[in-house]
Amino acid sequence: MTTECKPLAPVDIPETAMRAHCRRVSVAAVELAKRLGWSMDRQRTVHELSERHHEGRSPLNVKTVGRLLTEVWGYESQDESTTTTEAQREEVSLIELCCFFVQRWEFIPYELMTFPEIVNELRGMATEGFFDKRLVEGLAVVPSVKLTDVKQAVSRLPVFPAIALRAMKLAQNMNASGFHLEEIIGADAVLAGEILQVANSPLYSPAMPIRSIRQAVILMGMPESCRVITAAAFRPMFQSPLVRPLWNHSLEVARLAEALARTTDKVDAEEAFLAGLMHDIGRLALWKLHSKLSVQYAALLEQGCEPMFAETVLCGFDHTQSGREVAAHWRLPQNLAQAVEFHHQPERTDSLLARVLYLAEHCSGSNEDLPSLSRLTAALELTGLEEAHLRMLPGDHAPANW
Fold this sequence. Notes:
The protein is an all-alpha fold. Helices cover about 65% and strands about 0% of the residues. Mean pLDDT is about 85; it is low at about 1-15, about 55-65 and about 395-400.
């Protein structure tokens, strides 16, 4: 069984890429219109115009087409019905501003810029008369979350399950045995139950029931037993129905990262598995904030937004930055912390683990961020992997009860 992986070459045809761009502009424009207190009718108008602002032909009514021709494409219309009002010009100015903002975000794989830096660039352009200053300042306050809010939310997260690090180190020890694993889980009946449940699952189908940890380790092997314990230590953080899909994704990326690490032999496989489990912990921190944010986030995803773009619009930063705060709070080892922070931008660190996570995320098909051929190529080259290796990755074979 193999996990289908996107081809190395970009898959978007120009029309598809343009439609995706227009959706992002529409989302940003509507959120800005809300912040400015515009009516629902004006929000709908902005949405309609944004969705088609790069089209040469539009199925919209004659009046709307005229507004597009006049304000966006610069054609003079002789039809009195298309004469623009001040409000209409303001709507088009808002769309132009959001179009520029989205283009700068889309260019981040090639020129790193943060949300505040993009806003400051827009402020400079507003001073030169390119944009309306009031609209720029409205965009600046669209995000409803600050990084300080995340730092407070991080303090409400459970403590880092130290047993996960101990299990990782145990798996790296060639001389370790089931006796050592029994010592690690100690009196924790829940963790002991986890490993016994997996050992007796259809995945292993033992001839006789497995009744001890030592028997389970002999059947499953030390590395796999340690991974079960590591996953069991993290899973309680993802118990609510809201974040259950995030757990499933994290477990899939952990398995893929482990397989990639074994293939490249440049990254420790057990460390890659642990990093995969926690790579999106910053998203969990964001979901610990007010419930309105979760509702807004889900709505933007339903409209076709990439998670990274939705986070940028609503927060002014994405889950990798909140992940950095979690890593600092948990005092993670530097390599794990860097992998969590840079798994979407591996070019910003020397960590091969971050590049393995990037490739694992890519092969999971999550489409959290815009595809980048340059990033993908660099990650493959530095890890010594090839596209063929990605296509041969094993599928997720974790038991259903994980």
